[in-house]
């Protein structure tokens, strides 16, 4: 239909959202769910590269939410977080057993929580993700970041060629 530029975000650590952590007696991440997400992500990268080779003019940026989330949860203090397991808004254990609603208990400082509710990132986390993917390190985007993707087609083509 004419679209040639695609910004794609892979699957994050699904096994680490509060709604899933509450299913563990200890509140740990579910590794099997994270392994499924990781397997999908590993298949996505070469598929996109092959698609770009077959479709002239196709440009893309693949953002690695899995790696970003893994790094954030591994060293939360580096990003200013004090709470990585529980949600800021919700109910029950880890505020992950019930939806966020007007009657929910809220955390004291939402900027210190990775997750806003049982399944979604907090506003601060979403901002950090956007920064990392839009103009951040190559560590989280491939073959170009979102800002480079929005740039000229010749710049993107050069970056794609050099990544092959």
Automatic annotation (TrEMBL):
Pfam families: Lipase_GDSL. InterPro entries: GDSL (IPR001087), GDSL_Est/Lipase (IPR051058), SGNH_hydro_sf (IPR036514). GO terms for molecular function: hydrolase activity, acting on ester bonds. It comes from Setaria viridis. Belongs to the 'GDSL' lipolytic enzyme family. The keyword Signal applies. GO terms for biological process: lipid catabolic process. It comes from the Eukaryota. Residues 1-22 form the signal peptide. This is GDSL esterase/lipase. Gene3D superfamilies: SGNH hydrolase. Keywords: Hydrolase, Lipid degradation, Lipid metabolism, Signal.
